[in-house]
Amino acid sequence: MSNRILAFVIFFGVMASAQGRPAFNRFTYNGGIGLGIGKDDVASYVGNSFNGVAGAGFNFSRLFGVDAEYMYYDLNFRPGVKQSQSLTDQSGNMQSISVDGIVTVPRHLGKLGAYGIFGLGFYRRSVSVPSRVLGPGTLYQPAWRWWDIQRDIFGNPIVGQTMSSNTKDAGGFNFGGGINYRLNHLHDSRVYLEYRYHRAYQSDGKTIVMPITVGLRW
Question: Per-domain residue ranges for the chain?
Fold first, then answer.
């Protein structure tokens, strides 16, 4: 009799525990926007900026998963840089697609959880200005290297080049982590706050951005 009582206690304990745990979804989706912090060239030309992400993934377990994520990062130069470096009406962006591994911290603090993320990706950086031909006496500017402007032995732009738009593709990596808060609605969706470090290896140098994103994962 005591063995049956013990079995019932264990059974109901397991059931209660399972019901108290958040839903486990194999397929996940996420989207978010936030502040982008630049480093090196991005810090010099752009400063802080806007970024947005969207992704989809698969959870192997409650602790491990993968996702594919798209990122858009605005590379619109600061007004002072545009004015001082003859880049009127400049615009730009960096877009990436990455495949990331996600590790969830086993311990939770109520509805609050944490995770780490690392991945490899493809990055495309694009910049543009209204098309113009560089004439004699034009002075080369530091930010112009994102346009692949060729120079002579004296460091001056070669006359006759057209400056308009330029795109650089590169591989790179990212890593970071975040915290999330489980909601009672939307199928146990989670609001997350995430920090990431992205580095792309373009042929004219590294492009480093550090987005801080607020989003929803469901």
Answer: 26-217
- Dig out the tokens for 52 from the structure: 């947005």
Determine the pLDDT at residue 18.
37
Rounded Cα–Cα distance for residues 184 and 77 (Å): 41
Helix (H, G, I), strand (E, B) or coil at 155: coil
CA dihedral 143, 148, 154, 159 (to 10 degrees): -110
Q: Find out whether 165 and 127 touch, Cβ atoms under 8 Å.
A: yes
Is the CB of residue 114 less than 8 Å from the CB of residue 160?
no
Secondary structure tally for the chain: helices H, strands E: 3, 8
117's tokens: 């993320």
Helix spans in 85-157 (H): none
Fold of 26-217: Porin (2.40.160)
In whole angstroms, what is the distance from residue 19 CA to residue 176 CA? 31
**pLDDT greater than 90 at residue 123:** yes
pLDDT above 80 (res 15): no
CB 170 within 8 A of CB 201: yes
What confidence tens digit (pLDDT) does each residue in 28-61 have? 999 999 999 999 999 999 999 999 999 999 999 9
